[in-house]
Amino acid sequence: MTPIGPLLRRLALLIALLQAVVAQAELPPALARQLADAGIPADALGLIVAPLGAGAPFIEHGATRPMQPASTMKLVTTLVGLEQLGPAWRGTTRLLAAGPIRDGVLHGDLVLQGGGDMDLGWQDLQAMLQHARNRGLTEVRGALVLDRSLYQPTRLDRGAPPFDDEPDAYYNVIPDALLVNGNLMRVDVFVDDKGLQLRPLVPLAGVRVTHEMTLVDGDCSQWDDGWKPPLVRPPRLGRAMDVMLRGTWPARCDRTVAFNVIERNDFIARLVRGLWAGMGGRWRGAAREGKAPADARLLAEHSSRPLSQLVRAINKPSDNALTRMLLLAIGQAAPGDAAEPTLQRGDRAIRAWMRSKGIDDGGLVLDNGSGLSRSERITAAQLEGLIRAGMNSRWAPEFVASLPIAGIDGSLRRRFAGSPAAGWARLKTGTLRNVVALAGTLPDAAGQPLVLVAFINHDALKPRQMRPVIDGLVDWVSRTRFVTAPAPAASSP
């Protein structure tokens, strides 16, 4: 006769197993129904749910199929950036004098040398120029030389086709080693009793901002629904460059808009001219691209925040331009010929790091490292392995702190309200016109830490149709207790 104690223990185990999800290859019925109800075929999903510690995945579906990751690809770039460059890495911009300075006059060129500085705003450039002015420089007799030679090629934006219908938007900016203010004009747009008003916030010499916008009733949070790319009218002799804002604007809306419409050499030249003249300095030359001579003298410099802070500025709001700059920095620091394209060196460095962690790089396609790409591909299994490596990295605190917190901040601040995942899940988001994705960590219903990677790629559906499904998947995971399938009992001798 079997003792009652062991029977009860076996019954308790059976009940626990019925209430939990045991490791399995196919989709659980609840998830399969969510996909079917949304019209999403099973092969449009790449999914892996695994324990953060040792153990086989609990759910694994399409996990070895290369898929578009959208912005979850930023996890690759930021983690490898931390691992290869270190959390204290900074990019630096230098202001140099390429010639002698006599009686306050520079008899030569003024050089602005880019060093992959991700934080160089117009106020920072103003402070650099003011430092040179305070040291007695009053006039520049040569050109303004823009040195982007740190990365090869120096200008990735030239000849690049627009990614979508919003080439003026910040998320589409293609960076280089010398990116000043993100190449963005910023304008306060508001409505008063005189109508629509504009107040430019970046002091560009010889630029006038006008509009032919129509006021409409509407929600200020949806101001960009009626936005059209601004029109730039080149300056004519003796006249300013006109930047005209177009489209519609909500009648009760006060907002600062930022846009990229002025060619970047011209943008920097106009900014330097405006700032320098405002300090009483004189410069009548032109701006040109070039390289600083070896004997150029340092006048001032500016350094970015350390990478430990920059990865938060990348992952929480999902900043494409900063991610692309970080991939260039990884490539520049990697071994190789200086003439080799920097992105190619960055690609090689990332693959070598992945292989060093036991992550197969087969099927991986890197374009710019941000996910803002139609060609980038990664598998859910590869990204799961990378997240696991990140959680075991010596820089794990910096990496984890960069991830959006569900219902709290970053690109997840308005998602997962009322879900157990709120306040606990740390997930990088990803969205393209045919992609939604989430990747990161969260606890299950028993508090067990998990790694989750989920991609949905479907050309016939829009993100707003797919996002509820992927959010429902995360909610389901957070409400489920996952257990590892028990090992077979040893047979009695």
List the helices and strands and how they pair.
Blueprint (H helix, E strand, L loop, with lengths): L3 H16 E3 L6 H9 L7 E7 L7 E3 L12 H12 L6 E7 L2 E2 L2 E2 L2 E5 L8 H13 L4 E2 L3 E4 L37 E8 L2 E6 L6 E5 L2 E3 L10 E7 L7 E10 L4 E5 L4 H15 L3 E2 L3 E3 L7 E7 L3 H9 L4 H14 L8 H15 L23 H12 L4 H6 L24 E7 L2 E9 L5 E9 L5 H16 L2 E3 L10
Parallel strand pairs: 1-23, 6-8, 7-9, 8-17, 9-18, 12-15, 13-15
Antiparallel strand pairs: 2-3, 2-22, 4-7, 4-19, 5-6, 10-11, 10-16, 14-15, 20-21, 21-22
Number of domains: 2
CATH architecture of the largest domain: 3-Layer(aba) Sandwich
The average pLDDT is 92
- The helix content, as a percent range, equals 25-40%
List the uncertain runs. 1-19
The CATH top-level class label of the largest domain:
Alpha Beta
Strand order of the largest sheet: 3-2-22-21-20
CATH homologous superfamily label of the largest domain: DD-peptidase/beta-lactamase superfamily
CATH fold name of the largest domain, please?
Beta-lactamase
Strand content: 15-25%
Ends distance: 19 Å
Oligomer: single chain
Strand tally, please? 23
Largest sheet: 5 strands, antiparallel
Radius of gyration equals 27 Å
Instruction: Tell the overall outline.
Output: globular
The secondary-structure class comes to alpha/beta
| Tally of helical runs | 11
Could you explain how this protein is built, in words?
Strands 3-2-22-21-20 form a five-stranded antiparallel sheet, sandwiched between helices. Strand 21 and strand 22 form a beta hairpin. The radius of gyration is 27 Å and the shape is globular. The chain has 493 residues and is α/β, with parallel strands linked by helices.
